[in-house]
Structures are given as C-alpha cells and as structure tokens.
Write a structure and sequence with these properties.
The structure is a single chain. The chain is built from 3 helices and 11 strands. It has about 180 residues and is α+β, with helices and mostly antiparallel strands. Strand 1 and strand 2 form a beta hairpin.
C-alpha cells in the first residue's frame, strides 16, 4: 500500500509499505478515506522528531523508526478481528487515535489519556496517512449514515489556528483513492 512516511524533520516520503496487518481480536482494519493534517503533524514535519520515536522504542507502542503520520482519520471498516463486535465490514468510522491499556490505575479511574502506556496512532506508531490502518475497535466511533461529509469530524477552527501558528500553510483533509 502507499503511505506518507516520516523519516525526520522536513523528510516525509510517499512510499510503498507493507499492508496494514490483519486485525487481531478487538481490532478493525480501516480503509482510510480522509486524513486531517493538524498543527501537531506540521510541527513534527518542520521541527521534529519531538513525538515520533525515530531513534528509540516508544514504551507504549513498542514502535521505533520511520512512521506513517496521521492521527486524525476517518474511513470504512474493511475487516474486523475474530472477537470484534462493535463494528461490521462497511461501517464508516472516525478514529480517536489514542490507545490505552484499560488496566492501569489511571485507566480504571476513567483517565485513559493519562494511561501508563498511552500512545497515539500516527505519532508513536503508524497512522492514517496510508491506504489502510489497523486499530483497536474501542478507539473508533461510528459516523452516522446521515453524515455526508466525514471530513467535518475535526473542528476547522482548530486546524486553521494550529497550522497558522506553525507557519505550515493551510491545513486540508487529504483523500485516499
């Protein structure tokens, strides 16, 4: 599959990479339809690596090295793991991007953003600037069938403000073919 792979400051390459893995139990493989580019992505591109673990393994994701960016993405469920139950093939979803363990004291207290092993798809492991991405089902949310513009999943004022502050130019949703 094709993906935008981050190799370091000002080094983002469109590459052929291995397909996203088949989903394990509790996971879904998403065919990415749109992926936002926000201020975090722009800053990482211009000044990083700050969040991408290029040179050392991230303690939560266990990933290191070049990384497929894109932590704001929406798409269609292409496959689900054996015990997956929240989504079916063909469902439209938006991913929350963050992954948490669910068992540490912070997760049990409902503070999943402070999880001891928290990581973000598209920053600390491969994300949505690719044709497909495999993620935990629990971080996905169904996009209503009545919604005709999935790109509106991200507030435009956040995108424009964050990219203006980094000098990266206009942010826009990118579309996979």
């Amino acid at each position: 599959m094709r993906a935008a792979v981050y190799h370091g400051a000002r080094d983002l390459r469109l590459e052929d990479v291995p397909d996203a893995p088949a989903p394990a139990p509790g996971e879904a493989r998403i065919q990415v339809r749109r992926c936002g580019v926000c201020g975090t992505d722009a800053h990482e591109y211009a000044h990083g690596p700050a969040l991408v673990p290029l040179h050392a393994e991230h303690p939560g994701s266990k990933h290191s090295g070049p990384t497929i960016l894109g932590h704001e993405f929406t798409g269609v469920v292409e496959a689900v793991g054996d015990s997956a139950g929240r989504f079916a093939v063909g469902d439209r979803v938006v991913a929350g991007a963050g992954s948490w363990c669910g068992t540490c004291s912070r997760c049990r207290a409902g503070r999943t953003n402070l999880c001891e092993t928290y990581f973000t798809f598209g920053l600390q492991t491969h994300g949505g600037l690719a044709e497909f991405v495999t993620v935990p089902e629990r971080m996905c949310h169904r996009v209503p069938t009545s919604s005709t513009t999935p790109r509106r999943c991200w507030p435009s004022r956040w995108r424009s403000r964050s990219t203006r502050s980094t000098g990266a130019g206009r942010s826009r949703a990118t579309r996979s073919s």
